[in-house]
């Protein structure tokens, strides 16, 4: 089972109320010299990545650069064969996925990880680990999620498998934030979405960012990345080949072409 399991003023967190981004020079998540092998294949070749606390970090790169493998290695779905991964100062390199998730890290995989045969409500309840039934779910937090993603409320009693691609993506993110999280990791949240849905997702992630949650996103939609990213890391051939400010990369067309083969 995939782990898919955080606004403007008034967004709920530990207790519902206003939140501000946390400014910190220390990364909340850090990878140092991480290598990953999948069978006979050496996919990651010494990844160094720092995700600053309270910011939204974009992980960019061409197809096959190793972005998804990096996320899956962070979550323990694939084990690092060398190197170190730390979260909030704790070494999580050898932890199993359930233990990593219990550290308040949520992961939305590229395939979204929803249960098609269950209703939207049942999908949300499964992700709300502190609740045994819908009545025990955090009502204020649900109302906040419904404002971010109205389709989740609209199709509350519908089978998740009958939702559109964009609605499924909204449900996947909603499941990830149904409980407060310290780090949200999402693989290509805008993939396959119509432009209007992409804009809705940008608005929602902008609110999530304002709540102070730390986010790490893999993204191919450059408009999405430019609108939301604070910092950026660019991967190529299993390594991070550039790290810095997203705004600085967005203004440097020569560097964009060098790193990504295109101009933003």
From TrEMBL:
The keyword Kinase does not apply. InterPro entries: AAA+_ATPase, ABC_transporter-like_ATP-bd, ABC_transporter-like_CS, BCAA_Transport_ATP-bd_LivF, P-loop_NTPase. SMART domains: AAA. Keywords: Amino-acid transport, ATP-binding, Cell membrane, Membrane, Nucleotide-binding, Transport. Belongs to the ABC transporter superfamily. PANTHER family: ABC TRANSPORTER ATP-BINDING PROTEIN (PTHR43820:SF2), HIGH-AFFINITY BRANCHED-CHAIN AMINO ACID TRANSPORT ATP-BINDING PROTEIN LIVF (PTHR43820). This is Branched-chain amino acid transport system ATP-binding protein.
């Amino acid at each position: 089972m995939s782990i898919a399991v955080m606004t403007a003023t008034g967004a709920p967190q530990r207790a519902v109320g206003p939140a501000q981004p946390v400014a910190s020079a220390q990364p909340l998540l850090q990878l140092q010299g991480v290598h990953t092998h999948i069978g006979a294949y050496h996919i990651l070749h010494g990844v160094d990545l720092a995700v600053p606390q309270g910011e939204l970090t974009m992980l960019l790169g061409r197809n096959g650069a190793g972005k998804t493998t990096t996320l899956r290695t962070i979550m323990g779905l694939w084990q690092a064969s060398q190197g170190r991964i730390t979260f909030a100062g704790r070494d999580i390199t050898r932890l199993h996925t359930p233990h990593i998730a219990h550290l308040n890290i949520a992961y939305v995989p590229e395939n979204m990880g929803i249960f098609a045969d269950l209703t939207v409500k049942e999908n949300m309840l499964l992700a709300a680990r502190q609740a045994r039934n819908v009545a025990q779910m955090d009502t204020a937090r649900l109302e906040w999620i419904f404002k971010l993603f109205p389709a989740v409320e609209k199709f509350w009693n519908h089978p998740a498998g009958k939702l559109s691609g964009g609605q499924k993506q909204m449900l996947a993110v909603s499941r990830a934030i149904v409980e407060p999280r310290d780090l949200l990791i999402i693989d290509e949240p805008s993939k396959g979405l119509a432009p209007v849905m992409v804009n809705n997702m940008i608005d929602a992630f902008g609110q999530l960012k304002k709540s102070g949650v730390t986010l790490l996103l893999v993204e191919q939609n450059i408009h999405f990345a430019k609108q939301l990213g604070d910092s950026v890391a660019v991967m190529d051939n299993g390594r991070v080949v550039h790290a810095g400010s997203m705004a600085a990369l967005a203004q440097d067309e020569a560097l964009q072409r060098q790193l990504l083969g295109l101009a933003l």
